[in-house]
Write a structure and sequence with these properties.
GO terms for molecular function: chromatin DNA binding; histone binding; zinc ion binding. The protein is α+β, with helices and mostly antiparallel strands and about 1350 residues long.
């Protein structure tokens, strides 16, 4: 039991009518409820409808069993007997005004969740009623997260009343939702927010089960796991002795090293040749053997099994692939497909094939070939290696013929040669996150495997298995589908995500055990790592602040302009997407520029020390440069400012303008035409009209009088008053004087025929309704044209002013061009990037000129290879690499190269993706090097750069490759994974605090405890979040809260961590850092709470002990039919204790060395449990005031304890005799009993604080039996036993390392039963087919 549990139920208003409470002393029965009762679930907070009379139920959503709260419980009849006084306990809350009814309800059944062994106290903030263990003085409310302490005086009052029924001292009753009290008690004990520690007294009566506060600490430690041991071990092939040792130290994670691969049975054809040439190391030969051995098998689906090379960057995957191709060539398979990331790498492929002796194998780059059949007479490629990039794989011709079809046709459907997916992480996201689409590359990789089922597939990537989702295209591994525990990949993915970090470790271990996976990495021993802070200079700080202000103003300007121009919704959304993407690129560019002076300084220092420099970045700013050259020409006064060009483009192309007045010209011409026709219209005589009507009505075919305009005109020129005309509405004849005649269109009608009828005078200047409307429109149109013209001119003027402001801003130049210029220009710096051109300073130094990167003798395709060779030949001592240009490039101090100076690798722009980080670092740290590189990780004091840089440095120091194998190999990069469940929860708490919907769980940065400073911070934060569009519909309040800023944050933004981090960059440095620090502080609290509650995924847990031995021989409980690998159950006996003699020796040793502090020594708990106190040894750790805790039963605790907490819970003991006896007693008792004592709810299965334990680990192959294990663990009572936990231990007698799933003692029988069922079914299938 870790702490208080929330048991609050919330009735949902309005509550249906309930039985009336009986009158005092009455005995009437309640009437039944007339309708369903609505309550809020105590678990998931959903609204439930409970049938009348039902008091106990299970939530259908979260499956929590619960009862109605007391105020909704049916009133008991008077005949209900009262429970015995000794078993009476406080019940759930009821309002004070219903105390009489509640006191009766308290004597009947209580709501689910009330633990009679604890005290029920209300939280001061959220009023949730908590089950508080006796003796627990300080804790956190599990519902709202506030830190709480027990108010001693009211607690004593409560305990006295609970024990004897006497009324306590009268105290005022606050108007809150309070718990039901024992008879006669007026006020419950109160929980107070923690400001100072409140001592707590012992309960007046001993509860049925004492809650041991020390046991709670021990349990939390055990849930988190032991301390991290050595995480990487030196690697050598365990079952092969072929070839020479690898030229550089190679390591493997300790998790994988605990797994043995299957026996090698494949014999290499090229082995004799390799013995002579010595071109492949034992590691590379081992990979070829296991890959070829794996390719001999087929999956249950019928497809040939595949192999995964997960070796880290620089181990030598390229030469391993060449060896595989050469081995298959010798076996008669003369066709192979090599898929990689860049066309430049075909030269490396050629080199690797030559190195292994395969000079006769031709390499054909597919991007240089036409789309026709490869084996046609025109092309004539009958065999060899087709080298294709991932981008080419999804290319197609104008006629619709794709490269994929071309490859499949060349291979043929019976193709059984090699298909190598090199750097296969490029095919990730075949199964993307919700809301996004699969990548075309991922689908193409999957399609070619489907069309060539007999192909020998090899996946190669240092980072391919970094995320379970990225395994989706590796269908040939046989981890899901027919014959496995998972029907399809989504089911496999769901199991891994449910299992957490440790589950991915098991996948890697399983793959190695089945002989389809190798994963080694170069040791980083010898490499230096340093994080270098490049704080913003004063000019850059001012520049950044002004840029942030401008972006905020620009946002308001665009909002205003959009309203004026009346942009359509779709157009408006497009503008804002462009705005925020430009916003992000702009400020990332600013961060890079801030580090340029530090990069130049580090580079010059390295050159002075006779070293060479590699500078890594992610983006080059080429697009902005080319746009500037298009606008200004190839000659300019200075280097292009990427941020300025980005801003200019955004405003020039996307500033909302009203429609041009020219667009009204067409409408204006239409009105003019109407006027012209109106005034040129001719009157029509009666005769003419009759003829026309007759013709229209087809009265007579032999009518001799054809209508002619000239004839009618002549006739009407007489203008006789007696002439008759036709009404053009009713077609009846009428005298001309009695008809209305429109002066505009010459319409003649009866006044009564109009709608509405005309009642005015018959005048000569009358106009019909249509003409009047046109005249009105004409006048309105003229006014509109003038108004729009004015608005358009005003908007254009505003736009020009904004462009002028942008041109006047002090903004940095493109950092890539700036660095090259400051370090000596292109003659001194090798550029290995994806851009085509560059700006260089003119010879007179008065300007810059744009020129192509390639010289006359070097093609653009070969420029990066040429630049790389210049660097490796010692002709240029500085290289700048980008992600686009450097994939697969080797820039290490190669023994074969002329330039063997030590590399200083400086990261100008740290990649925000772990996959990309490992690829960049692997450029300078590779096999066969004379010296390991020095890494200099640059960061600014903005956002999260410093935190990220330090994590990467520590991760590299732990010899890991950031994403491989054991996630606990040093501080995990997952600590920087802010966009996690915990990060989203922390962000929601940040936003709720800023919007004053809740209080912060921590004091905001640079705020004191007083409310005024916090309110000031909240105001600043609101203004900042309004400026970057997080808070919307912002208004300034009036009335009592006049001046306060209000608004809303949409639900989608409440947990969008990526958006928060990106928008954060657009704030001034000061508020940016304060908001980021607040987010990190709250994230730490969320992680701490999750860890304390046993919910944090801690990956692999190390099991430590003084003595760890196998209790009995391991049991083989399952055997895999394809690989022969087995699943084994290990049972260990573990002694975790520290004897009195050992503890005394530890303290004496510290005192003799003079390394101890005055507070070192033995301590005893201030409280007694079950008649005895706990003893501990406290020794100050590496941090002053923080102490290591050694206990008799479990040894050294994982969590170190601050001195204040140590003195709050324990007191120092000077009597050696007292400590000796107490220590020994606890040591002896803990061999058979847990710390909870004989009344422990878990019983003999509980291991909390137990010195001697039986510990079960299911090792070996796990995935085939995953479902069985999940079912067995789901049946466990103890919550922590339900979790899938990966553990690791090393036996003390023979140093055997075992890694696998922890199986609680209570679940062993269930697991074995399930495994027997699997094995029996398998045997039956084999026997009967």
């Amino acid at each position: 039991e870790r702490g208080p549990n929330s048991i609050r139920h919330t009735p949902v208003p309005p509550v249906p009518s309930k039985p009336s409470p009986p009158m005092a002393g009455g005995s009437s029965s309640p009437s039944p409820a007339s309708a369903l009762i609505q309550v809020r679930c105590a678990g998931c907070r959903g609204v439930l409808a409970v049938a009348p009379g039902m008091t106990e139920f299970i939530c259908p959503k979260c499956q929590m069993a619960q009862r109605l709260p007391p105020q909704l419980m049916p009133n008991p009849s008077s005949s209900t007997p009262s429970p015995p006084k000794s078993s009476a306990a406080p019940a759930l809350p009821a309002p004070p005004q219903h105390r009489k009814r509640a006191s009766q309800a308290a004597q009947t059944s209580q709501a689910h969740g009330v633990d009679p062994t604890k005290i029920q106290l209300p939280c001061v903030r959220c009023q949730a009623v908590l089950n508080v263990p006796h003796g627990l003085a300080n804790f956190r409310c599990p519902q709202c997260g506030v830190d709480l302490a027990v108010d001693l005086s009211k607690l004593q009052n409560f305990l006295t009343a609970a024990s004897n029924g006497a009324p306590p001292a009268s105290v005022p009753v606050p108007p809150t939702f309070l718990p039901v009290l024992p008879p006669g008690m007026l006020q419950p004990p109160q929980l107070v927010a923690v400001t100072t520690t409140v001592p707590i007294g012992l309960p007046a009566t001993e509860p049925p089960e004492e809650i041991n506060e020390v046991a709670i600490d021990v349990e939390r430690d055990e849930d988190e796991g032991g301390t991290v041991g050595e995480t990487f071990t030196d690697y050598r092939p365990p079952k092969l002795s072929l070839g020479l040792p690898h030229p550089d130290p190679v390591v493997e994670t300790s998790s994988l090293s605990a797994v043995q691969p299957p026996e090698p049975t494949y014999e290499l054809n090229i082995m004799d040749e390799l013995d002579q040439t010595k071109t492949l190391s034992c590691l590379q030969i081992e990979t070829i053997v296991y890959a070829c051995q794996r390719h001999l098998h087929h999956l249950p689906t019928g497809d040939r099994a595949g192999f995964f090379v997960g070796d880290g960057a620089g181990v030598g995957k390229g030469r391993t692939i060449a060896g595989l191709i050469w081995e298959n060539w010798q076996q008669g398979r003369h066709k192979a497909v090599w898929v990689s990331v860049g066309s430049d790498l075909k030269y490396d492929a050629r080199r690797d094939l030559d190195d292994v002796g395969a000079k006769c194998v031709q390499v054909h780059p597919l991007n240089k070939l036409p789309y026709s059949k490869l084996d046609s007479k025109a092309i004539g490629i009958k065999n060899g290696v087709i080298f294709v990039t991932y981008s080419s794989l999804i290319a197609s011709s104008e006629r619709g013929r794709s490269r994929l079809q071309q490859l499949v046709q060349w291979c043929g459907h019976e193709f059984d040669g090699l298909i190598v997916f090199d750097e296969c992480h490029k095919a990730k996201n075949l199964i993307p996150d919700a809301g996004s689409q699969p990548t075309r590359t991922g689908k193409a990789v999957l399609e070619i495997q489907e069309k060539l089922p007999e192909a020998r597939v090899v996946y190669c990537s240092a980072t391919g298995a970094s995320e379970p989702r990225n395994l989706g295209y590796m269908v040939r591994l046989g981890l899901w589908g027919d014959g496995t525990s998972f029907q399809d990949f989504p089911q496999f993915l769901g199991a891994l995500e449910k299992g957490g970090v440790g589950a991915l470790e098991l996948v890697a271990m399983d793959m190695k055990a089945r002989g389809m996976y190798v994963c080694r990495t170069l040791s980083y021993k010898g490499a230096d790592f340093d994080t270098v802070e490049a704080p913003l200079e004063e000019r850059m700080t001012n520049m950044y602040g002004k840029a942030a202000e401008f972006w905020a103003d620009l946002r308001l300007e665009l909002l205003s302009a959009g309203e004026i121009s009346g942009e359509e919704k779709g157009v408006s959304n497009q503008i804002w997407r462009l705005y925020w993407s430009s916003h992000q690129r702009f400020f990332r560019h600013m961060c890079m520029s801030a580090k340029v002076p530090a990069v130049v300084k580090l580079a010059k220092e390295a050159l002075a020390e006779n070293k060479c420099v590699v500078i890594g970045l992610q983006s080059t700013g080429e697009a902005r440069t080319e746009e500037a050259v298009t606008k200004y020409g190839v000659e300019m006064e200075d280097f292009v400012s990427g941020p300025r060009e980005l801003l200019l483009k955004l405003v020039e192309e996307n500033y909302p303008l009203p429609p041009k007045p020219d667009t009204f010209q067409q409408g204006e011409e239409k009105v003019t035409e109407i006027q012209r026709k109106r005034h040129s219209a001719q009157d029509v005589s009666f005769k003419g009209r009759v003829r026309k009507v007759a013709k229209m009505e087809d009265v007579s075919d032999d009518d001799s009088g054809d209508y002619s305009p000239s004839e009618s005109s002549d006739h009407e020129s007489s203008e006789s008053d007696e002439e008759f005309h036709m009404c053009q509405i009713c077609n009846s004849e009428e005298e001309k004087s009695l008809l209305l005649n429109c002066s505009g269109c010459s319409l003649r009608v009866h006044p009564s025929c109009l709608t509405p009828p005309w009642t005015g005078m018959l005048t000569d200047d009358w106009s019909c309704y249509s003409c009047k409307k046109i005249e009105g429109q004409e006048m309105e149109h003229d006014a509109n044209v003038a108004d729009f013209s004015k608005r358009y001119d005003s908007a254009v003027e505003r736009k020009l002013k904004i462009l002028d402001v942008i041109r006047s801003l002090d903004l940095p130049n493109n950092p890539l061009d700036d660095i090259i210029d400051q370090l000596g220009g292109p003659d001194k710096v090798a550029e290995i990037t994806g851009r085509r051109g560059m700006l260089i300073r003119t010879s007179d130094g008065k300007g810059v000129i744009y020129q192509a990167r390639n010289a006359k003798e070097v093609s653009m395709e070969m420029i990066n290879m040429h630049e790389k060779q210049q660097f490796m030949d010692d002709k240029k001592l500085i290289a700048i690499i980008s992600e686009a240009g450097s994939a697969g490039v080797s820039l290490h101090a190669d023994r074969r190269a002329k330039n063997q100076r030590r590399r200083v690798h400086v990261t100008l722009e740290l990649p925000w993706s772990a996959d990309r980080a490992i690829q960049q670092f692997g450029r300078t740290h590779r096999s066969n090097q004379t010296s390991a590189p020095q890494y200099r990780l640059l960061f600014t004091n903005l956002g999260g750069e410093k935190r990220f840089a330090s994590i990467v440095a520590k991760r590299l120091e732990s010899l890991g490759a950031l994403t491989q194998g054991d996630r606990r190999a040093g501080p995990s990069l997952s600590a920087f994974n802010y966009d996690s469940t915990y990060g989203k929860k922390a962000l929601t708490m940040v936003y709720r605090g800023i919007m004053e919907q809740d209080s912060f769980p921590v004091v905001p940065p640079r705020c004191s405890d007083n409310q005024a400073s916090i309110e000031e911070f909240i105001t600043e934060a609101k203004v900042a979040l309004v400026s970057v569009g997080i808070i919307r519909d912002a208004t300034v309040c009036n009335g009592k809260v006049a001046g306060k800023l209000s608004g809303r944050i949409v639900d989608a933004d409440m947990h969008d961590v990526a958006r928060f981090l990106n928008r954060l960059l657009g704030l001034a440095p000061d508020i940016q850092n304060r908001l980021f620090d607040l987010f990190i502080s709250i994230l730490d609290v969320v992680l701490h709470n999750a860890r304390r509650e046993g919910q944090l995924d801690s990956g692999i847990v190390d099991i430590k002990g003084k003595n760890i031995e196998l209790k009995e021989p391991p049991k083989t409980v399952h055997v895999d039919s394809l690989s022969g690998a087995s699943t084994i159950l290990f049972t260990f006996t573990i002694d975790r204790g520290v004897t009195w003699e050992s503890a005394k020796a530890m303290l004496d040793g510290r005192e003799n060395d003079g390394a101890g502090s005055s507070n070192d020594g033995f301590y005893e708990s201030k409280r007694e449990w079950m008649g005895r106190r706990h003893f501990t040894l406290a020794l100050e750790g590496s941090t002053e005031g923080i102490y290591k805790i050694i206990r008799p039963a479990i040894g050294e605790a994982l969590r170190e304890m601050p001195l204040s907490e140590l003195k709050g819970k324990y007191r120092k003991v000077s009597s050696i005799d007292k400590v000796s006896k107490g220590w020994q007693d606890e040591y002896d008792v803990s061999s058979k009993q847990c710390m909870h004592g004989s009344k422990c709810k878990v019983g003999s299965y509980c291991t909390v604080g137990r010195r001697l334990q039986e510990f079960n680990i299911l090792g070996g192959l796990i995935l085939p039996v995953w479902g069985t294990i999940e079912k067995a663990l789901a049946k466990q009572v103890y919550q922590n036993h339900k979790r899938i936990r990966v553990v690791r231990l090393v036996t003390t007698n023979d140093n055997q390392r075992i890694v696998g799933l922890f199986i609680p003692n209570a679940a062993v029988e269930s697991v074995l039963t399930g495994l027997f069922f699997i094995s029996w079914n398998f045997c039956r299938v084999v026997q009967w087919g």
